[in-house]
Amino acid sequence: QKVKDQRAGSLANDLDTSTILASKAVRSGGSTSCEKRQKYSDSYDGYVSTFQLWERKFLGNDNAASDVKTSSLSSSSTRQSRRMEILRGCFCGARNPKVAAALKIVYMDYAALRLAGDLIFKLMSKIA
Known about the structure:
Elements: H1 2-27, H2 31-59, H3 62-74, H4 78-95, H5 97-109, H6 111-127
Helix pairs in contact: 1-5, 2-4, 2-5, 3-4, 5-6
């Protein structure tokens, strides 16, 4: 029983590691760096929250999920279909705490990837 409890505790710690690292990343560096990272962190958190809201809007039930899938497949525009696939990928990423925390660190630290993330969010905003 003790071994099972230790394994369960270890698993819970593993699940929290990415979140802990993301929160530590905000506080690393000088005060100016911390302020910028906090700003980027807040922006990223807003994106994740928005994707979660959109997911409930589009995929809140099985019928809505099939409607989104059907509309993207029946569309004559390949671009629209691709954007719907990207949107579904954003939903999956926002739903997974480890992925969201890892991407948050990357978003805060790398300007080029932050720019790409902002662009993806703007493009997804047009179809959501």
